[in-house]
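Chapter review: from sequence to fold.
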Amino acid sequence: MDGTRGYFITGTDTGVGKTVVTLGLMQWLQDRGHRVAGMKPVATGCVPTPQGLRNDDAQRLRQQASIELAYEAVNPYAFEPPMAPHSAAAAAGTRIDLDRLEAGFAELRSRADRVCVEGVGGWLVPLNGGETVADLAVRLGLDVILVVGIRLGCLNHALLTRRAIEASGLRLAGWVANCLPPPTDTLKENINTLKSMIYAPLLGVVPMLDTVSAKAVADRLSLPAAGYT
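The token string follows.
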């Protein structure tokens, strides 16, 4: 249950930059010689294509990977409606099965040194009638990295999520401050407050970038050596 297998990347909400940070983390690990795969177990708001439903974030994780992967290996559950996963699955006449996701992760883990798994929405988003993103993370047994979207309201969201992660029994390996528009005068103050109240290291501050790339994000991350070797 540590960075020798990979990380589960969650966020304080939807749209806070989980994919951007996951791509940067993958690049950071690749720069240190690791063979890395990315996984987005569940995605909603997918686009129909001749090959089937496709999600842009999952496609980016697939392209960033060190190994060639089928789309379905990266994103086993893809749904077209942009709604909560359990609702999207119900609308499609199916149910998200955590056994299937755990098996898919095991397959990726057999082919890569590290697997970076990006959650959907926030930590307690429902996946089916009784299980949430947190339950999936517990199944996979990975250390967690929390992406905090730095904006108005982020303190409460971040501290509640930190508490929920700790209650799950998983280790919070660290958190990333992702600065979101519009710019705020309290940005540094918010980050410093969270540094004093989240008892896990700040792994990096990602500013509002003119050009967002995995390399640009990776250059702003720093994981403790014990966390990934």
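Two observations follow directly from the output. DSSP finds nine helices and ten strands in the chain. The longest strand covers residues 143-150.
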